[in-house]
TrEMBL record:
This is Cell division ATP-binding protein FtsE. Part of the ABC transporter FtsEX involved in cellular division. The gene is ftsE. It is found in: Cell membrane. GO terms for biological process: cell division. Homodimer. Forms a membrane-associated complex with FtsX. Its main location: membrane. InterPro entries: AAA+_ATPase (IPR003593), ABC_transporter-like_ATP-bd (IPR003439), ABC_transporter-like_CS (IPR017871), ABC_transpr_LolD-like (IPR015854), Cell_div_FtsE (IPR005286), P-loop_NTPase (IPR027417).
């Protein structure tokens, strides 16, 4: 589903590569934790998957296609296939829970009947049934992250990218969020999650890819967090 083939990314004006000759393959059914100290290249990896930035050399393939060869007008279609969840939720504060999720379908032109059927189903899946009329600031942090996950998943993307999704949540709430991401993974969505959350990584025992100074220094099938920071 995701292939990095000898990918190096050096940002303009930087001497050191943010990613240095990274080759990694992630299959469709996988759940992968991306770990490493601050500045090790995790966000750069995720940005390359989204084609928010391009490699200096090497190839990034999504579902078998070299995404850096895609013409610009095809990039929105690529991004539609990739849901994103962030530490700071990034909800529209003036829209209700329902509208935050519906908006993701409306902007890609889904018919109203589809929106009306799908949004309640997804809100129920993430455990927010009955809360569709609330505004984001009337929800707990964990509930807000559930809205963000519902919005990322409502379009049934091939890939879900999560950048520190539990970074603002307490441990118990984080476990609930991880259960949800695991459930989404089991529906066939590839999940790649960058995290510093030792407890979560050690508990989930999923594949762990560790970056250090832009290089892959560890890639374990059922790994633990494993490095001191
Ligand atoms: N837009 C940019 N321009 C120049 N250098 C950048 C840019 N973005 C990132 N870098 C550099 O690239 C390296 C990797 O950064 P990146 O953000 O990928 O790390 P990270 O592992 O995601 O860190 P964190 O855990 O703090 O989010 C760092 O040295 C960073 O300073």
């Amino acid at each position: 589903m995701i292939t990095f083939d000898s990918v190096t990314k050096t940002y303009p004006g930087q001497r050191r590569a943010a990613l240095d000759n990274v080759s990694v393959h992630v299959d469709k059914d996988e759940f992968v934790f991306l770990v490493g100290a601050s500045g090790s290249g995790k966000s750069t990896f995720l940005r390359l998957v989204l084609r928010e930035t391009r490699p200096t050399s090497g190839h990034v393939l999504i579902d078998g296609r070299e995404i850096n060869k895609l013409p610009g007008f095809r990039v929105p279609a690529l991004r539609r296939q990739i849901g994103t969840v962030f530490q700071d939720f990034r909800l529209l504060s003036n829209k209700t829970v329902y509208d935050n999720v519906a908006f993701a379908l409306q902007v890609i032109g889904k018919p109203r009947s589809h929106v009306r059927q799908t949004v309640p189903e997804v809100l129920e899946m993430v455990g927010l049934e009955g809360k569709g009329d609330r505004l984001p600031d009337e929800l707990s942090g964990g509930e807000q992250q559930r809205v963000a996950i519902a919005r990322a998943f409502v379009n049934k993307p091939m890939i879900l990218i999560a950048d520190e999704p539990t970074g603002n949540l307490d441990p118990t709430t984080s476990v609930g969020i991880m259960k949800l991401l695991d459930r989404i993974n089991r529906t066939g969505t590839t999940v790649v999650m960058a995290t510093h959350d030792v407890g979560i990584v050690d508990q989930m025992r999923k594949r762990v890819i560790e970056l250090s100074g832009g290089r892959v220094v560890r890639d374990e099938a059922r790994g633990v967090y494993g490095y001191q920071h």
